[in-house]
Amino acid sequence: MSNIQYIAVEKITPHPGNPRRELGDLTELAASIKESGIFQNLTVVPFEDGYRVVIGHRRLAAAKLAGLTEVPCTVSDMDERKQAATMILENMQRCDLTVREQAEGFQMMLDLGHTKDEISEKTGLSASTVDRRLKLLELDRDGFIQATDRGATLSDFAELDKIKDTKVKNKLLDSIGTNNFRFDLRQAIQKQDDDEQFAKWKTYLDSFATEVKSQMDYERVEWLSVYSTDPPETIPEDADKVEYYYYLSRYDSSLLKKRVDNGKSPEQIERERKEQERKTLSQKLSDVCETARALRRNFVREYTGKNEHLKILIEYYTKHIMFNSHWTDVDEEDMAEICSIELPEDDEQWEEILTAELSKLKPRTILLAYIFLLRFDEGNGMKPYDYYNRFSSSKDLEDCYSLLNELGYQMSDEEKKLLDGTHELYVKGE
To answer: What confidence tier does 326 reach under pLDDT thresholds 50, 70, 90?
Structure first.
């Protein structure tokens, strides 16, 4: 049941469940109301000695700003469940809600007894979209808002679903909306995968060996590839006779046993220690460079480009490849993978299928993939450091970024530091 009446503005309060947190600039609306009045009634519900507004929060605030003492209202007896649904649907229809506000509105509807299917039906959004919106509530609210203000997109936030730990997700909010996000996300995913694999090996090794924090006083029995293989199903046959130890590190894990007398001089032990430090640092640098390489490759894989890019690519090909390269073949599987083309197991059909599928792509897409695979995908020429982990400028890497940047690639801070020699992992000195 409802009726229309004029109600004093001091008797109407904003609804605490209104999903729209910010009402925006009311100056223009207040001026219009002051000159012409309110053309659309507010919808209110009785509350204590007055009313709560369900539809018309901006009109109520603007009316107060314009100096009105009363406003036209439709008084409704809808229950809390109906109020929540009405507020979120009305705001969504006006496109007035941020994604976070939508999520908070959906949660309020759930708290009042709506099901996800009902929310999906009422809003016209798919059940998976409703779920993704609700997941956003796991994130720190202030960090989320700041990320949105920086230009973070829904697809950026969807990428966070790849991370399981909410603390890590919230840390990544610091870089969402910046050029660093893709780099930080990829490293976080890699660490997550590594940690899960690391935990499997630790459980296995703890069943028969003792963990140590240094390998210096032990003899290596076996090098453990903890991040590329799963642990064996059985422990060593002599585990009941030999006292085993193990050393777990992200870059050098080993199954060990105690040395009786290694016979090495202090100088030799120190050289070995320094060499181990060099290898560990080299692997850290390699990991950072591999993340950067994966981002460059992914840019090429997703590249669609602009019409004017074809001229840039043709000029590059003519100048750097056509007359200056003795090797102009690329691997068929690499070309298929970077162009998202699926090849059958029978390699006799590859040439025919690859030719047919490539013909469907834009020339600039094919040309960039070809140039990238031929010149920039891997190899020592793309490594910006030497054997001792000192910065060593790479002309190939500089050329690669120069071309990709011209096509729209956005470098992260980590990539910039790798390229200009300022990365903290580089060894300083001669």
So the answer is: low
Q: For residue 31, what is the enclosing H or E element?
A: helix 27-36
Spell 201-233 as b/e; 16+ CB within 10 A means b: bbebbeebbeebeebeebeebeebebbeeebee
pLDDT at 25: 83
The answer to whether the Cα torsion of 305, 308, 311, 312 is positive or negative is negative
Indicate the pLDDT class of residue 94, thresholds 50, 70 and 90: low
What is the Cα–Cα distance from 107 to 113, expressed in whole angstroms? 10
State how far the Cα of 384 lies from the Cα of 390, in Å rounded to an integer.
8
Q: How far apart are CA 184 and CA 4, in angstroms?
A: 56
- As annotated, the residues of the chain forming the CATH 3.90.1530.10 domain(s) are 2-126
Give the helix/strand (H/E) hosting 290: helix 266-302
Q: What is the pLDDT of residues 328-374, one digit of tens each?
A: 788 899 999 999 999 988 888 888 999 999 999 999 999 999 999 98
Nearest to 83 by CA among 26, 140, 133, 15: 15
CATH match of 2-126 with 3.40.140.10:
no
Query: What is the dihedral sign for C-alpha 41, 42, 45, 50?
Result: negative
Where does the pLDDT of residue 184 fall: very low under 50, low under 70, confident under 90, or very high at 90 and above? very high
Distance from C-alpha of 366 to C-alpha of 313, rounded to nearest angstrom:
10
* Cα distances (Å, whole numbers) of residue 133 to 130, 169, 171: 5, 15, 19
- AA identity, residue 108: M
Token pair listed for 213: 């924090």
Q: Cα 78 to chain center, whole Å?
A: 42
